[in-house]
Amino acid sequence: MNIYNAAVSRAVFFYDKEKVIPIAAVCAGQTIWGFSYIFSKMAMDVSSPEILLSIRYIIAFALMNVLCLTGKFKVSFKGKKNIKSLFIMGLLEPVYFYFESYGILYTNATFSGVIMSVVPIVSILFAVIFLKEYPTKKQALFCLLPIAGVIIMTISGSALGIVSPIGVILLLCTCVASASYKTVNRKSAEDFTAFERTYIVMFISSVIFTISALVSVKGDLRQYINPVFNFNFIVPVLILSIFCSVVANVFVNYAAGKISVAKLSTFGTLTTIWSMFAGVLFLNEPMTVLSFIGSIFILIGIWQVTKAKDINKQEKNCKTGGA
Known about the structure:
- The protein has helices at residues 2-44, 49-69, 83-105, 109-115, 119-131, 137-142, 144-159, 165-188, 194-216, 221-225, 231-256, 261-266, 269-282, 289-305, 308-320.
- With 323 residues, it is mostly helical.
């Protein structure tokens, strides 16, 4: 009996481990992204969003190639079926970051992170339509809490004069791009590893952003390269390139192949919480009682949507295609 109990305990450990590792990965990735808003804001005080994104992704893609040269990471696209979805995924990354960067420019780091909490709602809708992944009724209900949090914090931010209508529109477009990315990412995970997906995203993004940056400076290489010699620009960009573009992407892309879009998207609200507190602590951005209440709504939503029994039921629905 003791041997039987020990075997069962070990089996339970490994079963739980299969669930815990993807959750830990997505939590780590979303936490890193939560701090990306403040570094983007710092870098854009020196240069334009186009130049920031170009240099950020060139460095990130160079790092991916260095990792390939070590022999521990491999990239292969031969004989894979979902090349089209992988290419679309690569194109969605630049679209997302254009909207996000200009959204931050016209609001602030705190509000930008908060409004992104509506991504789970859009992602769940896309997952139902394109992937036939159905959330439970309880999950769908509690995913409305982040929206309530955004509304509360928008009211608070508008009262402080830190939010412009164009900024809100751009950030809402960011939400749609993010939800689309997660849906396509889930499909691409059927054929490609997390590293391969990250690699192609870094490559396509670096090409598109660099072309855009050079057009913005009318081909003036001196104007393009000058920010690199500014300490207040290059340090945030290095952090964004290494941790936010490569490390966080690999973590989240790994999780995308293991868990449903609905569950993956819900963890995105962690980015909201971290960006809000990072903005307050490091950029001295204002935080009101309403902002705090909005963040509580978001946390409650995460807790309720990711409760174990609801997750198991939702994942079962993913397989059966029913609610």
